[in-house]
Amino acid sequence: MSNKNKYDDEELEKYFSDKSFRQKKIRKNRTQNKLIGTFLFFVIAAVTAGCGYLYFLSSSLPSLEELENPKLEEATKIYSSDGELIDKFFLKNRTKVTLDNIPREMIQALVATEDQKFYDHWGVDIDRIFKAFFKNIISGSLTKEGASTITQQLARNLYKDIGNEISLNRKLREAMTAVQIERTYTKEEILAYYLNTVYFGKGAYGVEAAAQTYFNKSAKELTLDECAVLVGTLKSPSNYDPADNPDAALKRRNLVLNEMYEEDFISKENYNLALNDPIKINLRKDYANFNSPAPQFTEYVRQLLEKRAEKYGYDLYRDGLKVYTSLDSRFQKHAVDAVKTLMGPFQKSFNGYWNWNANRNILADAVDKNIKQSEAYKKAKTEQDRGRIYDKMKNDKSFIDSVKSLTSTVQVGFVVMNPKTGEIKAMVGANPNTNFKYGLNHVTQIKRQPGSSFKPFVYVTAINNGYSPGFMISNDPVTVNIGGTVWSPKGGGTGGSISMRDAIAKSINVIAVRTAMDLAPMDQVIETAHKMGINSELPNVLSLALGAGEVTPLEMTNAFGTFANEGIWVEPIAILKIEDRNGSVIEELHPETKEVLSEEAAFIMSDMMEGTIDYGTAVSIRQYFHRPAAGKTGTTQNYTDAWFVGYTPQFVAGVWLGFDDARIKFGGAYGQGGKAAAPIWGKFMQLLYSDDDFDFPVEYFLMPPGVEEASVCMISGLKSNGTCPSTTDLLIKKLSQKKCSIFHYSAPSETSVETQEPPKGSVGY
Fold it and tell me: What distance in Å separates the CA atoms of residue 12 and residue 765, rounded to the nearest whole number?
C-alpha cells in the first residue's frame, strides 16, 4: 500500500471516529463547493452576457443586403434640353464617381495619411489600436489619438446606425462592420465608396463635389497638390478649409505631401515641386447652393417632382435622379438679358412716380409683414422679446429703407414656350436684378387680371360664330345697367363703326364689350378660354371681356399658343424624362393635346393680332423685331398690371409686370402693356432670332384652304362691289355666306343687363 493510500485510510478512519474532524471536513467541502459554484455561475453569466452583448451589437449592424448594396445619398441633378446642368436638389451635396475618374495621387494621399496599412489589414489595425490606446492613456484623453482605418471610417459614413458617440459600443460596432465590409468588397471598391462618401467641408460630400467646390473642376483633373489639399481637410474640414484658413490648410497639405514621400508614393522631385506650389483655390461658391440660371423654373420642376415621388417611390433629395427638362439654357439667357436690359430704366421711371409719403398705409403693412417674417422675430422666446424686437426694427431706418426698396420693386413674369410641343423653353419668374430668386414665381403662382390681353377669347368666339374680322361694330358710347348700377366702359365711344380687326389691334374697349354683348355670349367666351388652357375660374360678367378675371401668366401664354399652333392646344410641359442614378428611365412625359379651335379660326385670329404689332398698341416691338408676329397687350385699372402675350409661328411668350402688393400701381401711361411689357418681348425675340446657335427660318402664318380673301366695304361692311372705299380682309368661307347681309352692326346706346354682377374695372391698350 502506498503512503497516499495509507494517509487516505487513516483520514477516512479519523473521519468516522472523530466527530469534530468530520464536521470540520464537511464545512471545508461545503465552502469549496460554494466557491466552485459561484465561479461557474460567474463564468456562465459572463459568457451569456458576452453573447448577449455581441447579439445586441450585431442587431444594430447593417444587414448583409445593406452591406452588399449600400445606398449613397446623392444629389438629384436637373438638366436643360441642351445638356447644361441647371440645378441640384440635395440634403448632402454629393456626386458619385468611379475609381477610374479619381486621380491615383488622391488615393495615395489618402492611404499615406489616413491608413498606411490599408492594403495589409482586414478592416481593423490591431497594432494601431493598442498604440492609440496607450497614447490616449498617457495624454489623459480618450479622443486625442484615433485608430480608425479607412474601412472603419467608411462603415460610419455608410451606416448611420453605427453612430458617432465616443464609446466602446460604437468602436466595436464599427470594427465588426469594417470586417464585414472587407469580406464583401475589394480594397479598390472600399476606396471608391470612401471617396464618394467622406465630407470635405463647404457642404461637399465626396471627392467630385469637393473638386467642383474648391477648384471648379472635375475630380479626374485634380493635380498632386490639389489632391493633398483635399485629403488634408479630412482631419477637420473647418480647421483646414483652404478658402477660410489658407495658412493652416497649407501646413496640412505639406504634411500630407511628406507622408506620401515617406511612403514612396512620390519622388523627391515631385515632393519638392508640390511643396513649393501655393494653394490655388478657385472657389465655386455656388456649388453647395447651386446658382441656377433659372431658379423659378427649377423650383417649379421640384414641385412637379415631389408630386410624383410617392407614385414612383423615389427620394428627391437622396436618390441621385437625373431629370431632363424642356428649358433651353440659351433661351433662358436671352430671356434674363432682355428683362435685365429693360427693367432698369422702367424701375427708374416708377421710382420717379411713386411717393411713399402718400402711401403710408402700404408701407406700414409692408413693415409689419417683414418684421414678423424676420428670423430675429421668429426666434424670440417670449411675447415681450418679440415686442422689443418689433419696436427696434420698426424704428430702424436702414430696415425701413430695405422694406421700401423690396416692396416697390417691379416684378416680372416671363415665360417662353414651343406651342407645338408645349415645352417651356425659358422662365423668368422674378426680377433678376434682385437677390430674391427663390420667392414667389410670378409665372405660375400669381393670378392677376389680364386686362385687354383677354380680348382675343372674345373675338375668337365671335369668329367661331361666323363673324368676319371685317365685321363693323358701332363705336358709340355704351352704358350697361346692372341691377341699378350704371357702367360705361372707357376706351372708344367716339362714334362711327370699327371692324373687329381694327378694334383688337387698337384695343378699343367699347367694341370688345359690344362684341361680348351681341356676338360672343360670355358663357361661350368662358368655355372657349377654358378649352384653350385657362384653368382658373372666370366670372360670368360682362367686364370679363376687358379682362376682369384673374389668371396666371403661364395660363395666358399657353392659351395663346393655341392660336400659334393652328387651333391645337398642347399641355405645358417642363419635365421630359426622369432617370434613376443608374440611368434607368423612371418616366418619360408626354403632353396632352387636343384640337379646340378650327385651323381657320386660329389663322384669322393670328392675322388680326398681327395688326397689334404692325400698327396697334404693341408697335413698340418693331424697334427690336421685324419678323411675322402676333399678340395682344393688356393694361389693368390704374395701370396696376402690364401684359403682353405674343407669338411667332415658332414660339409663344408672355410678359407680365406688376407688384407683389397689388395696391401699388404704375400710375402712368409708361405702365401700359404696349410700353412696359411688349418691349421686353420684342427684345427677347431679337436676341433669340439673331443667336448664331440657331437658324430659325422666316415663317409666316399660312392661310388654310378654309379661309378666303375678300374686299370689304368699310362704309357698309358688306363685300365690296368696287364702288366704295374698301380694304382687303379675311372671311371664313364656310360661315361668311350666312353673315354677308349683316356685316354692319349698330347697337342701342343703353342696354339693361339685370342678371350680371357689377363688373370689375379694367382698361384697354
Answer: 129
Mean pLDDT, rounded, for 749-757: 38
What is the distance, to the nearest Å, from the Cα of residue 77 to the centroid of all Cα atoms in its chain? Answer: 11
Q: Is 145 a catalytic residue?
A: no
Beta-strand pair 575-579/322-325 = antiparallel
Question: Which of 292, 452, 474, 497 is the catalytic position?
Answer: 452
Residue 220 pLDDT exceeds 60: yes
Answer whether 0.85 is exceeded by the pTM. Answer: no
> Where do the domains of the chain lie?
3-59, 92-276, 413-752
| pLDDT score recorded for residue 277 | 82
Catalytic-residue membership of 452: yes
Average pLDDT score over residue span 422-430: 97
Half-sphere exposure of 315 (CA within 13 A, CB side): 12
Number of helices (H) and strands (E), helices first, in the chain? Answer: 27, 22
Output 691 or 199, whichever has higher pLDDT.
691
| CA gap 182, 160 in Å, rounded | 18
State phi, psi for 643 to the nearest 5 degrees. -130, 150
Q: How many other C-beta atoms lie within 10 A of the C-beta of residue 610? A: 20
Cβ partners under 8 Å of residue 326, min gap 6: 81, 418, 421, 423, 424, 425, 573, 574, 575, 576
Catalytic residue among 114, 174, 555, 599: 114
Q: What is the pLDDT of residue 753?
A: 38
- Which residues lie below 8 Å from residue 529, measured CB to CB, with a gap of 6+? 454, 457, 538, 559
Fold of 413-752: Beta-lactamase (3.40.710)
Q: Cβ distance 644 to 636 under 8 Å? A: no
Q: Is 1.10.3810.10 the CATH classification of the domain at 92-276? A: yes
